[in-house]
Specification:
The complex is a heterodimer of chains A (about 250) and B (about 325). Chain A is built from 14 helices and no strands. Chain A is mainly alpha-helical and about 250 residues long. Chain A has one domain. With about 325 residues, chain B is of the alpha/beta class. Chain B has 11 helices and 14 strands. Chain B has a 6-stranded mixed sheet, with helices on both faces. In chain B, strand 4 and strand 5 form a beta hairpin. The chains are: A mainly alpha (about 250), B alpha/beta (about 325).
Chain lengths: ~250, ~325
């Protein structure tokens, strides 16, 4: 446990002492601010029954932030250590592979969640200056962050895996970007592929309807199915990452 | 402390280490000597549990490095080649991070960091950022890291590579100072370095251990093949006659250089040092000597020397 916490601290510190961390947060804040601007303009022209979080989600900034910034956050995790040789000093201390994987994931994930905090500020401004709690729902806000939390877990875990299989940060970023984009494209499947009669095929395809699922979260509707699916995906990617680290010891 | 039995390491396509065996006792300083690509780093990586051996048994402090990997890692301080560090961290912060990672408690880690900072002469730079330190200081940070958890065994992969002579001296001094409390395994491709710091040397070449002995014995082995070079102002005939009368000279070769000087390469029998005799002889005959040396053998020559018997068999 001590080793795990030490490693998480070091991972977080690595983001905050380098310029990269601030660039990432800056980019995320910029995109959120932009979508907020779009949102406010929309509210000025015509009223809407949608909760704020859903309007925000509709601007698509959520996906841009997730798809572009998650790979940038995760690319350095293993690739940089391998390229610099510090991977060797790290793995020759008495820490287990599991501790390393979980610590790297946790560090990146905590940073990822911190990156989303400006969104709260945006929503607070609406709440404060919008005159009353109109269109503002704590439940919907909680559900939105739950969605960000779960889907973020999937993307960060995927980035971990991408970073573990290479020693070049650029390659790691490319791989996780491509994989993330594929997942995003998969969420168009349920609309495009008309499966008549339903059955297991339809169920399988609707599993990947990330866009609709995330919209539900933003609307405040929490469904257990995507929660289980996201958690399973996260564990799956982390498990593969652990295997990649262990493969070093295979004979 | 270290027990290696018939260890082999194959990478895809080539064999880095071919069935080597050796032991290192507690408190010894052992040098692993060999040219680049001889398998030194691979051996060290296996000992420090970073890579598994393809076959063979490797034990550190009686524990198998593969099965009891974490226990072994607790007892080892390893500094890899090129001494990788986190350049964005400060010296003290880094050492504390490493101490915590190696399982030292809060108070203990602070106390040990103080000790190794002092021991490695890092007190003045403890608040500086590692990336801005000179290479010599960075090397000391690596050493301090290897020492911080009071390991039984310290493994240093080319600790002095890329340092200036002054820095090399201070790092060597440091390593020598470790001898009392720790067992040390150092790899190097510089012979004098191993001679100065180690009490035993293992010579590796092409994945095999060719010789394992004390520096003195290896010196003798080398000396038996050394040559004496003399440059004397005298006539060629005189010189040749003179050398052929000395029975200790097995072979000689006289060649002309600039001016009156002749360059003679003498191979003594049994590695005897003939320099005093030659000097005496020259003064008797009133010859002028401008050079008189015994050729120092480079590491390559030792390899040649130790590989020879194998080829003869």
């Amino acid at each position: 446990m001590q080793a795990f916490l030490t490693l998480v601290r070091r991972e977080l510190a690595a983001y905050f002492v380098s310029v990269t961390g601030y660039i990432i947060i800056g980019a995320a804040a910029f995109l959120m601010g932009w979508s907020f601007d779009v949102l406010i303009r929309g509210l000025q022209s015509d009223p809407t029954p949608m909760p704020l979080t859903e309007i925000f989600y509709d601007t698509l900034m959520f996906w841009i932030i997730l798809l572009l910034l998650a790979p940038v956050i995760t690319m350095r995790l293993f690739a940089q250590e391998k390229a610099a040789g510090t991977f060797e000093t790290l793995m020759t201390t008495p820490v287990s592979d599991m501790q390393v994987v979980l610590a790297k994931f946790s560090g990146a994930f905590i940073f990822f969640m911190v990156m989303w905090l400006p969104l709260l500020a945006c929503l607070w401004i609406v709440l404060h200056f919008g005159g009353g709690p109109a269109g503002f729902d704590l439940g919907a806000l909680g559900a939105t962050f739950l969605g960000i939390f779960l889907l973020g877990g999937v993307f960060i875990a995927m980035g971990c895996l991408a970073s573990a299989i290479t020693r070049t940060q650029m390659v790691a970023a490319m791989v996780s970007l491509a994989a993330g984009f594929s997942l995003f494209m998969a969420s168009f499947l349920p609309e495009r592929v008309a499966i008549d009669g339903g059955g297991w095929r339809e169920q399988l395809v609707t599993c990947f309807a990330f866009r609709d699922q995330m919209r539900d979260f933003a609307r405040g509707a929490v469904d257990t199915r995507p929660i289980v699916f996201y958690l399973a995906l996260t564990f799956f990617f982390l498990f593969l990452t652990l295997r990649v680290l262990e493969s070093r010891r295979w004979k | 402390m270290i027990e290696v039995i018939d260890m082999t390491k194959r990478y895809a396509g080539h064999t880095a280490v071919r069935g080597i065996s050796f032991t290192v006792g507690r408190g010894e300083i052992v040098g692993l000597l060999g040219p680049n690509g001889a398998g030194k780093s691979t051996t060290m990586r296996i000992l420090s549990c970073f890579l598994p051996a393809t076959s063979g048994t490797v034990r550190v402090a009686g524990l198998d490095v593969f099965r009891d990997s974490r226990e072994v890692r607790r007892r080892i301080g390893f500094m890899p080649e090129n001494n990788p560090l986190y350049p964005e961290m400060r010296v003290r912060e880094y050492l504390k991070f490493r101490a915590r990672l190696k399982g030292l408690g809060w108070r203990k880690s602070r106390q040990r960091v103080d000790v190794v900072t002092e021991q490695c002469g890092l007190t003045d730079v403890s608040k500086r950022i590692i990336g801005q330190l000179s290479k010599g200081y960075r090397q000391r940070v690596g050493l301090a890291d290897a020492l911080v958890h009071e390991p039984d065994l310290i493994i240093l992969d080319e600790p002095t590579v890329g340092l200036d002579p002054h820095q090399i001296r201070s790092v060597r001094q440091l390593i020598k100072g470790l001898a009392q409390q720790h067992t040390v395994l150092i790899s190097t491709h510089i012979l004098p370095e191993a001679e100065m710091t180690c009490n035993r040397m293992l010579i590796m070449f092409d994945g095999r251990i060719l010789a394992a002995d004390t520096p003195d014995n290896l010196q003798k082995l080398m000396a038996s093949n050394s040559q004496i070079i003399v440059e004397i102002a005298a006539s060629r005939a005189d010189l040749e006659e003179c050398w052929s009368q000395i029975p200790e000279i097995e072979q000689f070769n006289v060649s002309a250089t600039d001016g009156d000087y002749q360059r003679c390469a003498l191979t003594p029998r049994n590695g005897e040092d003939l320099r005093p005799r030659i000097h005496l002889l020259a003064t008797q005959r009133r010859w002028i000597i401008r050079e008189l040396t015994r050729s120092r053998h480079s590491l390559e020559d030792i390899y040649v020397q130790v590989t020879k018997p194998e080829e003869d068999n």
